[in-house]
Every structure is written in C-alpha cells, then in structure tokens.
Amino acid sequence: MKQIRFLDLFAGCGGLSLGLEQAGLKLAAAVERSPMAAETHFRNFHLRGEEWDQGLWDEVLESGSGGSFAKQVHYGTVVGDVWELLDDPEAMSLLRETAPEVVVGGPPCQGFSMAGKRNPEDERNQLPWAFLRFIEELDPAAVVIENVVGINMAFASQGSVDPTFAELREALKTTGLGYIVQPVEVNARHFGVPQNRPRMMLIAIRRDLPVAREVEATGAVSDMPWRSADAYKNRLEGQDPMFDLRLAPTVGSRVEGDKPDQVHSAMDALRDLDQNGYSLPHDSRKYKSPEFRFARQMRQATPRTNRGWQKPEGRFSTKSWRWIRASFSRMATRWGMVRPLQGTQGPRETRTTTDSAETPSNRPQDAPALRLQPQVPLTNHVLRNHSERVVQRFDLYHFFAEEGIPNSVLGIPSRIPDGIEARQKVADELRGHATEKPDRRFVTAEDDHLVDVVMRLATRKHSQRVVDAGKPAPTVLTLPDDYVHPIEPRIMTVRELARFQSFPDWFEFRSKETTGGALRRIQVPQYSQVGNAVPPLMAQAIGELLGELLMGHE
Predict the structure, then answer these.
(1) Cα angle vertex 424, ends 420, 430, to 5°?
(2) How do residues 60-70 score in pLDDT, each as one tens digit?
(3) All domains of the chain, ordered by start, with CATH?
(4) From CA 22, how far away is CA 41, in angstroms rounded?
(5) Contact call for residues 521 and 466 (beta carbons, < 8 A)
(6) Is the dihedral of CA 464, 40, 16, 142 positive or negative?
(7) Is the dihedral of CA 254, 255, 260, 263 positive or negative?
(8) What backbone phi and psi angles, to 5 degrees, belong to 97?
(9) In angstroms, rounded to a whole number, what is the distance separating the alpha carbons of residues 251 and 229?
(10) Is 109 designated active site?
C-alpha cells in the first residue's frame, strides 16, 4: 500500500513529524526557519542512528545561502523563511513533485500565547496566512494546523473581531477546491503524554474526498470545537468517545500495554532517571514492572531512518565518505602516522550518561534475555550548575509545596525596602504554617526560624514551581528554569522535559542548551526546541486519523 507523504511547515525540532511517522506516514520535507531547530530535525530524520556528519549539515545550510532553496528541498530540510520559499519557483516546483498528500504545521504561537504579551501587531501572527499559501500551491488531500489555545481568542484591543483561528477556518473552506474543516481542542494527557498541554487544531479534508470517507454523511463536522476532554469523559462513562465525528482523533494512550484511559504522571516519565542518568539497567527485573511502562517505551531502540530525501547529483553519499575516511585511518595507523583515538567524548550537549555501575563497556554479556528494548545512549541529560544558595532555595520550594506556602513569599523583601516591615509581612504570610525551622538542607546555623530562611533566600524571581510527581506535568515552556524537579533540588534537564513531551530517548536535540537576553528572540536552543514542540504521542493520534481518512487515496 502506498505510504501517505506529508510536508511539515514550521517543523521545529520535529515533534509533529515524529508522531506522524510513528503512525505510518512518511516525511516528504520539512521547513524550519531556525538553523538550530532544523539541525535537530535533520539529525533525527535523515541521519538517525548514524554518526553526525557536520560537513553534510554545513552543505545543507550553504545550499540555501544564495537565495534558492531547491537543493535544500532535495535534502528534505529547508532552512529559511516560508515567505521567501513561496517566492522561489524552482523550490516550489520541486515541493509539488514530492506530492505530499498532507500538509501539517504549527505556525509560531508567541503572538497568540496566553503566557506571552498577546501582541496583535506581532509579525509572527501573519505566518498562519503563509500556511494557506502553501495549501493553494500544493493542493493536499488533508491539512492540519496546530497552535496554542490563545489563537482561538480575540485580542482584547480588537473587541468583537473574530479571532485568527476562526478566520483561518473560514479561509480554508474556500482555499483551492475547498476543505471541510473541523476545529479540535486537544490535551496531550488524553493521548498518553505525561503532561497537561492544551492545544487547538484545525483538521481539514479536501471537499472532493469525503463522500468515500463518509465524513459528510455523519453531519458531525461543526464550527464548534471538538474537545478531547469531553471525549475522554465519555470514554470513562462507557459512551462512544468519538461522537460519530470523523475529523477528530481517538482519545486514549499510545503507550504499549496501557489501558485506553491511562493517564501518565510526571513520575512515570522520570521513574528510571536520576541526576546520574539511567537509575536502572534495561535488563533488570524491576524494570519489567508495569509502573515502568512509559519509561520503557521512551528507552526503545532507535528505529531506522525513514528517508524522504535524495542527495543532489555529484556528491558522495555519507556512507561513501565514511568508507574513505575509515580506509585512510587504517592505512595511516598501519604506517605509524597516527594512533587510534581512545576514550573520546562528544560535545557537552550530546554527552552520554549511563549508570556508573553498569556502563555499556562493562555490563555483563550473559544477562537474562528479557523481552525488553536494548539500552540506548542517554543524551541531553546535562545538569545545570547551581550555586549552594540556589540549591537551598529549590529545597525551600519543595518545603513550600508540601506546606501549601506560595513561592511569592520569597519576593516580599524585594518589594518592601524597609527590612523590619518586610520581615513582619513575611511573618504574616507564614502565619498558619509551621514557622519553626525544619530539619532541611536549606536551613543554616544562623537561621532561628523560617522567617530568617525566607529573608536570607529572598529573590525577585520566584516564579519557579515544583512539579507534582503524582500528576501530569504542567505545560512545558521554553525557559530552562520554569520548573523544579519533583524530588531533587534542581531544575529539569532537557531530556527530562523531553520525556514530559513523550520524545523517545534516542531523539537527540542539537545546538546549545539555552540562551538569554536579546538572543532569546532569534535563537532556538535545546530547551526552546522542547518547549515549542508538539508531543509525538499526541501527533501520532492525529496521524492515525489521517491514515484512516486517506487510506486508499491516490
């Protein structure tokens, strides 16, 4: 059967691409403006399971530097502005030749996000309309547009003007041959993702297809959003969670062995991880227990690359270059020109961390043959460097979470210049809670009671929140210090947040870990890549729907 091909616009690091691939679809090409995020996408979809080829990636970037994206289309990764791509006739012609049956994407959401300033003048708010241009050019059978819930809310300054989401929905209905459009409001937790992450989507199918797919016959397509929360509630009550709606994904976990109504917690995501890496070897009997089910799926073996690209003519393949380099190395070693390198370690952001007691080199070879996926190298699990004062503050946050004390107490001394007045205000806020100094690591010899601790550890930035281990994680954002680890006094690593997003451990995030200041607007480091991504397990549910709708379509 022919594989359904898709084009991923505003692809980011590849969460949506990965989910669709897990559902059986094939990537035709991805378009991403940020070189940092595009590097991650290229590494995981075109060099998956292979040694990183910096020369090849440099060639990809250089091939688009002259204002033409045609060569990058051959590579399957276009790194550039979508408007400029639309104005490149050769590149667009090549994209049409890839014949993607599905066009998906999540235009940047910063202008719409409820966590941001919601600026109606933000230039990024125009990018959803670039998406429509691609629909006109490529005429796909199906379309998926993903964004934050805020895209479905009108800006306050615009009064009763319809929000962008409604405008997009109406525009899709008349784009090209026209589309049947269903808005859906999904939460990642309803699809096996250990995270509360609400998102809005437009799922559309071209008007000349639905008769065979029985979409029109149901009469269920509506301008009102379908909500996964309602479908999940109906499933729990034994009712049909689909409401006979053909343009909505099926709720339920995509983790192997789960019951359909399984909801995973933050601890499910972190159960086999600690600050040193994997806390349990993959072949231990404890690791076979049901509570490690989500972790086991995240530690799955690296699948083979599902290549959707062709190298331009006149270039050696990566395999050819690797053979040449290996041959030269063997000859040079034989002739005494060089010595083989031993004990080398990769870049910091891709450093492999394993359980110190059982590294891949000394793990027993005669371990019991359990039906488990093999151990994969753990990347992107680099701890941030915290001062002792910051570690004490994070431990205090844990205590506050246990006692129900708001972190805002730590901001009182910075808001009230008078020390005596500030101290009295802190004491008032703590009244009703234990004010005696607890036996915790954040307490020092000079602290007589909890008020002393608060005055000493006071900070203007007190917005961090401790992740509740027993519940799905809060929505993963783009800043590294948004959340404090549920058990340890530190912030989360890139890998831990990626687990919250349901990225498997073989998925490697490239570039530097984080950035700050003015660079935050133009750079997309690892933490931002994870925070901006679509959870793969949720995307898989969307891909399964698309596969059902387009099965047999030519």
Answers:
(1) 145
(2) 999 998 778 99
(3) 5-264+532-550 (3.40.50.150)
(4) 15
(5) no
(6) positive
(7) negative
(8) -65, -30
(9) 9
(10) yes
